[in-house]
Sequence to fold (188 residues):
Amino acid sequence: MDEVDVMTRAGENVGKAVGTSLKAARQGVVRAGHAAEAKLADRGITADQVRGALVERADTLMGKAEDWEKQTRRSRKRLAKKSAKTRADLIGKAEVVRKEVKKAAKGARKDAKLRAKEIRKAAAQLGADAPKRRRWPWVLGLLIAAAAAGYVAMTRRPQEIQLQDEEQAPHAEPVLNGQVPSQKEPIK
Fold:
């Protein structure tokens, strides 16, 4: 419970300090105002004259601010008109250039077609003027070369050796007195 009391007293103390400081600030402002009035009175100026001068100055500043705003608004409008006009001019010029380029490209394609046609005609005339080459001597030469290669291959073929053309029937051994000799006896 001691903490609650301490916190309560702290709040009261802060409140008292704020109140006294506000009171002192008000009193200081009033004193400064009286001192300013006294100095102005020494120079022969009243508080109403000061207020009037402040209001005049504020009116002048407001007028200048409005003039500045009007001037910047006019400048923005002028700039917007000028940029729109410039943009329209650029778009128009770009369209004209695009049409000219398209027309030039079309003409270039036609010219290229005509030149290609002329080149083909000239090549055909050159080809017609040149003597035609005969291909049959080459074909004849190839046939002779193939025959020679075949002949060489046939002559260098290995000779076939036939080991047994026919199967021979085994020789029957002579039968002596009805007996078949089982083994040959070596001759002594």
Notes: The chain has a mean pLDDT of 83. The two ends are 154 Å apart (CA to CA). The helical segments are 2-43, 47-129, 136-155. Residues 40 and 46 are 6 Å apart (CA to CA).
